[in-house]
Design brief:
By secondary structure, this protein is α/β, with parallel strands linked by helices. It has 5 domains: 3-20 and 39-136 and 233-323, P-loop containing nucleotide triphosphate hydrolases (Rossmann fold, 3-Layer(aba) Sandwich); 147-224, Arc Repressor Mutant, subunit A (Orthogonal Bundle), CATH 1.10.10; 331-422 and 589-683, P-loop containing nucleotide triphosphate hydrolases (Rossmann fold), CATH 3.40.50; 430-458 and 492-580, PCRA, domain 4 (Orthogonal Bundle); 717-762. It has 32 helices and 24 strands. Helices cover 43% and strands 14% of the residues. It has a 7-stranded parallel beta sheet with strand order 13-14-12-15-16-11-19. The chain has a 6-stranded parallel beta sheet with strand order 3-2-6-7-1-8. A 5-stranded antiparallel beta sheet has the order 23-22-21-20-24. It is globular, with a radius of gyration of 29 Å. Helix 6 crosses helix 9 (204-223) and helix 15 (331-341) packs antiparallel against helix 29. Helix 4 (99-110) links the parallel strand 2 (92-96) and strand 3 (119-122).
Length: 768
């Protein structure tokens, strides 16, 4: 029996009542017809693409520039391996970073060759699929029905755990502690003896909090039969450590491993790739060091920079192919991107070119402040709409989320519809999380977090005191909260409405127990009816009631679509599909609107026209990156490079002389990156004043501006500002270099100015 057959048969040996496993890009699907399968696959590829596709055995590094057709190369290579090399589909593992990319890859491959048994998915999806099969071999408390807790679940739990550890959750933010734990796990956790990465404003106490809460958090996950996102990567490695034979079997199974976006891999992902490709060494990775922008979440650019050294063996060099022909952007946009990125030292040399023509010059816009910047962008987009341009072809990108407010205001005032990517996502909405919690509890009754939410949905009079009594009862007996709720002894602790509410809850839970074996949509509708959720939503007295009802229907529709596309996936599969969703997957909605998103969120996307706001020093590059030195600056340069290469035909770069930051209107300097752009591709980057300021290494603002005159200003003074015009001083605080004033300007409203830099001129006397 082959490793493929043995592993698949092993995975099939499970309890009869358990729903068929895995959804989305995880489950083995029926072989599709070889639609369009033909001998001339390679005809439409350029020479470099063809070289990558037909590479034989051994490690392969594909350096794929932005817009160079890398997805086509990967999918065609998979099809070539199956059709021309006779590789069994089940012997191929293809990994990417987003669900959207995985779906696209799967659909493209299926149009060419059968994919039954093939593993195509994200790193997290691959880890989840493997653990659904094998986690019980780890010997811990988890079963194949484990729950996946998302970031919201983690933060909710950590808020309580910070309190339990004796610390103040308003001082030690659960989100920050969660980020420390995530970084620790992605560095290898206890398995690798990873050092704690706690580093905040509280010096040594940060480490104390991290150590205490981390232990409580790890214990809580195990007690609840749950895994978080990071565990989906870490636990497979722990499993392979505990069961080396299992690692060997999976390495034997996967004759070819392909990894997209390899520049974004972290330490754990790197180790997984090494383990799974160890037997056959047929590892093909595709990526671009110039687009490595996730160091803040653990990505290590050295993984791709050192690939040739790490995977060469016995004197055999790694085969390297450069994809440099771009099919997205004009040459001027590409030259602008190259002029910028060539200043980085940590990169692999390549230069993108295109047959799409020179195109328009890249425009740099100098604006007065953030509102002027937003108005400039909105006015130009409005004019483009008048000329017949589609709004969904236009995107506004920015470095930091605080910039979003002014941009939204500008678009709204111009009457332009827009969509913010990364706002309150569908699966974060209250009514959606309510129903998901019930479904999670029905699949895994050890999930106390889901149980805690379900106890209050709908409201049953179980208040904080009753809930704490119930949790204490469960903790004392070391049983799940759901089992405690069903205990007559626990009910005896409660009184009145709380006791009756607990009885209603346990009755509903018992009546719904069988839904875990139903298709996802049927299970969803059974829960809605069983707990009276429609009436609960109808009774909500808020402006969002209609929207909440629509969201419930949308959730049912999503479950129905899942059932249709993933026969046999079941409720457990649907919940996993929901848990692994990411922000970029939502971009397909809102077609008739301008897209607002951060530079990080823009990765992998493209738009006909792109605006990048806030090209100012200490914003892009960010102040934290400047403080981090050369590595930080290079990552910020790569981030701007990613933004630039999203543009197909038109690119606009904006900076403002003043910007409101944390309540103060501060003077700004243009980003030093603007001075690195090639003059023959850019209009406006090398205006004398801007260039001199950018290139002044001492950044001597103090020498250019008048001494602060805060002591000379009083409330009521009439003043004039170079940009904001005439205004009236409302309040003055501080003195010397720390002096600040609130000034009301007729044309710009209230501004908070640092007087050291404001150059205010008094034009009238104080009010009597």
């Amino acid at each position: 029996m082959s490793p493929i057959d043995w592993l698949d048969a092993r995975a099939a040996r499970e309890p009869a009542e358990r729903p068929a496993e895995l959804p989305a890009d995880l489950e083995d699907e029926p072989a599709g017809e070889r639609a369009g399968a033909r001998a001339d696959w390679l005809v439409d590829l350029n020479p470099a693409q063809r070289e990558a596709v037909v590479h034989g055995d051994g490690p392969l590094l594909i350096l794929a520039g932005a817009g160079s057709g890398k997805t086509r190369v990967i999918t065609t290579r998979i099809a070539w391996l199956v059709r021309e090399r006779g590789v069994h589909p089940g012997a191929i593992l293809a990994i990417t970073f987003t669900n959207k990319a995985a779906r696209e890859m799967r659909e493209r491959v299926e149009r060419l060759v059968p994919i039954a048994g093939m593993w195509i998915g994200t790193f997290h999806a691959m880890g989840a699929r493997l653990l659904r099969r094998e986690i019980e071999a780890l010997g811990g408390p988890w079963t194949r029905d484990f729950t996946i807790w998302d970031t919201h679940d983690r933060t909710t739990l950590l808020k309580q755990l910070v309190k339990d550890a004796g610390f103040d959750p308003t001082h030690f933010k659960p989100s920050q502690v969660g980020a420390w734990i995530s970084a620790w796990k992605n560095a290898g956790g206890e398995r690798a003896g990873a050092q704690a990465l706690a580093a905040g404003p509280n010096y040594g106490q940060d480490q104390e909090v991290f150590d205490a809460v981390r232990k409580l958090y790890v214990d809580a996950l195990a007690r609840n039969g749950a895994l978080d996102f990071d565990d989906l990567l870490l636990k497979p490695l722990e499993l392979f450590d505990a069961q080396p034979g299992l690692a060997d079997l999976y390495a034997e199974r996967f004759q070819h491993v392909l990894v997209d976006e390899y520049q974004d891999t972290n330490a754990i992902q790197y180790q997984l790739v090494r383990v799974l490709s160890a037997r056959h060494r047929n590892l093909a990775v595709c990526g671009d060091p110039d687009q490595s922008i996730y160091a803040w979440r653990g990505a290590d650019i050295r993984n791709i920079l050192d690939f040739e050294r790490d995977f060469a063996r016995d004197g055999d060099a790694v085969h390297v192919v450069k994809l440099e022909q771009n099919y997205r952007s004009t040459q001027r946009i590409l030259d602008t991107a190259h002029g910028l990125i060539q200043h980085n030292r940590a990169r692999k040399d390549k230069r993108l070119w295109t047959e799409r023509g020179q195109g328009e010059l890249v425009r740099v816009h100098e604006c007065g402040d953030e509102n002027d910047e937003a108005d400039t962008i909105a006015a130009s987009i409005a004019a483009a709409r008048e000329e017949g341009r589609r709004l969904d072809e236009i995107a506004v990108l920015y470095r930091a989320n605080f910039m979003q407010r002014a941009l939204e205001r500008g678009l709204a005032l111009a009457g332009l519809p827009y969509q913010v990517l990364g706002g309150l996502e569908f699966y974060e909405r209250r009514e959606v999380r309510d129903l998901i919690a019930w479904l999670q509890l029905l699949c895994n009754e050890s999930d106390d977090l889901a149980c805690q939410r379900a106890l209050g949905v709908p409201a049953r009079g179980i208040g904080d005191k009753s809930l704490q009594d119930l949790k204490a009862f469960a903790a004392e007996r070391r049983i799940p909260l759901a089992r405690a709720a069903a205990s007559p002894e626990a009910r005896a602790l409660l009184r009145g409405r709380a006791k009756a509410g607990l009885e209603q809850f346990t009755s509903a839970l018992e009546a719904l127990r069988a839904v875990r074996t139903l298709p996802a949509a049927d299970a969803m509708q059974a829960v809605i009816a069983g707990i009276g959720y429609a009436a609960h939503v109808a009774s909500m007295d808020d402006l969002d009631q209609a929207s909440r009802e629509e969201n419930v229907q949308e959730l049912i529709a999503h479950a129905s679509a899942f059932d249709r596309d993933h026969a046999g996936g079941g409720l457990l599969g649907f919940l996993q599909d929901v848990a692994l969703v990411n922000d970029v997957d939502g971009l397909e909605d809102g077609g008739g609107s301008v897209k607002l998103l951060t530079l990080h969120a823009a990765k992998g996307l493209e738009f006909r026209e792109v605006w990048i706001a806030g090209l100012e020093e200490e914003l892009l590059p960010h102040a934290r990156a400047i403080a981090a030195g050369d590595e930080g600056i290079e990552e910020e340069r790569r981030l701007l490079y990613v933004g630039i290469t999203r543009a197909m035909a038109q690119l606009h770069l904006c900076w403002a002389r003043f910007r409101g930051i944390y309540g103060n209107t501060l003077p700004r300097r243009p980003s030093p990156f603007l001075a690195e752009l090639p003059a023959d591709s850019v209009d406006g980057a090398h205006e004398p004043e801007g260039a001199r300021v950018v290139l002044d290494e001492e950044h001597a603002w103090d020498g250019e501006w008048d001494e602060p005159r805060g002591a000379a200003l009083r409330p009521g003074d009439e003043v004039e500002h170079d940009h904001f015009g005439r205004g009236r001083v409302e309040d003055v605080q501080g003195s010397g270099s720390t002096a600040k004033a609130r000034v009301w300007f007729a044309r710009h409203g209230m501004k908070h100015l640092a007087l050291q830099h404001a150059r205010l001129r008094r034009v009238g006397g104080a009010r009597g």
